[in-house]
């Protein structure tokens, strides 16, 4: 009998422990987060919910700083209490967006993100020549030559009110790339950009060493060093420059990583473009 009482007590203890373990999961605080703190106009934001009840209906409302409700949708949390909602930002500039998620249980969570700096796709230049999206290359240069790139960037009003990040009006660095070559990051030269306005900045870029026609991609960031936070969308120009042999130079072999495929379509530098959605 003593053994039976001991086993019964142990069983009760395990049941009680199980109740507390299971019960602790119910106390999880629901959240909703965005995959970036700052987006360019027209970008796609991914919102992720966690900690909600399994099968719980969650209403997700996205409101801009202009008071407009840009998206009001309902989603069902999965068995793990998670969900994903996609939001296409408008093409026009809106300084920031607030997200409110409300579950059928009455629980709620909020987050926010800004619609920060973006590049004018019609004002990207090399050596003073504006690069069109699909026109044949108008800039001709020689291998390894130094060119001057110019970009025009508009920054937004920085409300600096948590959870809005304080980076909406800043432009600290620029990343660029020719074809499938190396990705280069350069910090914005003085004066620093720290107010909401439209700015034009130039920086040196080095032409590829092999002959051929090359694409050009450029992206700007809030801080120095091209960190992931505060990145703009990428502006991509398919026909940027043609690298030709200098006068009287011996024949050279075109780039093996050809900037154009045999069918004439552009070889997009995927390693660069996966950073964020392209916006032109």
Write the layout of secondary structure elements.
Blueprint: H1 2-25, E1 31-34, E2 44-50, E3 57-64, E4 69-76, E5 83-88, E6 96-103, E7 108-114, E8 118-119, E9 125-126, E10 129-130, E11 139-141, E12 146-154, E13 173-178, E14 184-187, E15 198-206, E16 212-221, E17 235-243, H2 270-273
Parallel strand pairs: 11-17
Antiparallel strand pairs: 1-2, 2-5, 3-4, 3-6, 6-7, 8-12, 9-10, 9-12, 12-15, 13-14, 13-16, 16-17
What labels would you give this structure?
single chain, disordered N terminus, 280 residues, mainly beta, 2 domains, 5-stranded mixed beta sheet, 10% helix, 37% strand, Immunoglobulin-like
Task: Walk me through what this model shows.
By secondary structure, the chain is mainly beta. It folds into 2 domains: 31-114, Macroglobulin (MG2) domain (Immunoglobulin-like, Sandwich); 118-273, Sandwich (Immunoglobulin-like). It has helices at residues 2-25, 270-273; strands at residues 31-34, 44-50, 57-64, 69-76, 83-88, 96-103, 108-114, 118-119, 125-126, 129-130, 139-141, 146-154, 173-178, 184-187, 198-206, 212-221, 235-243. Strands 8, 9, 10, 12 and 15 form a 5-stranded antiparallel sheet that branches. Strand 6 and strand 7 form a beta hairpin. The radius of gyration is 26 Å and the shape is elongated.
Short description:
This protein is mainly β.
Strand content: 35-45%
Q: What helical percentage do the residues reach?
A: 10-25%
Mean pLDDT: 75
Largest beta-sheet details: 5 strands, antiparallel
Give, in order, the helices and strands: HEEEEEEEEEEEEEEEEEH
Helix/strand-derived category reads mainly beta
| CATH-derived architecture of the largest domain | Sandwich
């Amino acid at each position: 009998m003593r053994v039976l009482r001991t086993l019964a007590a142990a069983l009760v203890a395990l049941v009680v422990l199980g109740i507390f373990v299971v019960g602790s999961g119910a106390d999880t605080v629901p959240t909703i987060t965005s995959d970036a703190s700052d987006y360019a106009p027209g970008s796609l934001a991914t919102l992720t919910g966690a900690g909600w009840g399994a099968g719980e209906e969650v209403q997700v409302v996205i409101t801009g700083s202009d008071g407009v409700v840009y998206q009001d949708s309902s989603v069902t949390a999965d068995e793990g209490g998670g969900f994903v909602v996609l939001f296409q930002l408008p093409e026009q500039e809106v300084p920031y967006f607030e997200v409110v998620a409300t579950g059928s249980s009455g629980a709620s969570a909020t987050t926010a993100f800004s619609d920060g700096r973006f590049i004018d796709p019609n004002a990207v230049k090399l050596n003073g020549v504006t690069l069109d999206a699909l026109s044949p290359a108008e800039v001709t240069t020689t291998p390894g030559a130094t060119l001057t790139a110019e970009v025009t960037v508009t920054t937004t009003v920085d409300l600096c009110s948590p959870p809005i990040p304080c980076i909406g009006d800043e432009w600290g660095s620029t990343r660029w790339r020719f074809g499938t070559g190396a990705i280069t990051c350069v910090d914005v030269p003085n004066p620093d950009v720290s107010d909401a306005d439209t700015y034009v900045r130039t920086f040196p870029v080095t032409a590829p060493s092999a002959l051929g026609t090359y694409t050009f991609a450029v992206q700007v960031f809030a801080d120095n060093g091209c960190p992931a936070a505060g990145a703009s969308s990428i502006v991509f120009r398919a026909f940027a420059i043609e690298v030709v042999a200098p006068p009287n130079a011996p024949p050279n072999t075109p780039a093996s990583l050809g900037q154009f495929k045999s069918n004439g379509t552009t070889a997009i530098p995927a390693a660069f473009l996966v950073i964020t959605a392209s916006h032109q």
